[in-house]
Amino acid sequence: MEIIKFIADVNVEKAIVDYLTQNGYDIKWIPDYNCEIPDEDLLDLANAERRVLITNDKDFGEITFLQKKLYTGIILIRIKGQKTEDKVKLFKKLIKNYSNKLLNHFTVITKKKIRFISMGDLR
Question: What's the structural domain count of the chain?
Fold first, then answer.
């Protein structure tokens, strides 16, 4: 099984990045590099380094599906008004139970469910 590497957008809570780092995952957090990076460039970087992008920005859905672009994987966190600790708990559940589905999928995490859309469906 391929080891999953991550890249976290500027809008991702540091607690999620810290959780992944503390659990031995290779993760880049964009604020450590370039907070002004355009979305397209961020996706290109994620793809070039075979990293799954973690974001709170739903614009990535538009870029992925309307422009029919394939990427290593994207995790969109769609949880409004919840504490950061709750988001981390949901992320832990995602990693523990579904890490085999993160590559080549557009994953959406909400309070009530986790949904996976295959990137292969874009072809």
Answer: 1
The model's pLDDT over 111-120, given as tens digits with 9 standing for 90+, comes to 889 999 887 7
Q: What is the pLDDT of residues 5-16, one digit of tens each?
A: 999 999 999 999
Q: Which domain holds residue 33?
A: 5-122
Residue spans of alpha helices (H) in 1-123: 14-22, 39-48, 59-66, 84-98
Find all residues with CB under 8 Å of 105, minimum gap 6, and list them.
Answer: 73, 74, 116, 117, 118, 119
Distance between CA atoms of residues 115 and 104, nearest Å: 13
Assign residue 71 the CATH number of its domain: 3.40.50
Q: Do 43 and 63 contact (CB within 8 A), yes or no? A: yes
pTM of the model: 0.90
Q: How far is CA 76 from CA 1, 16, 54, 79, 105, in A?
A: 23, 13, 6, 9, 11
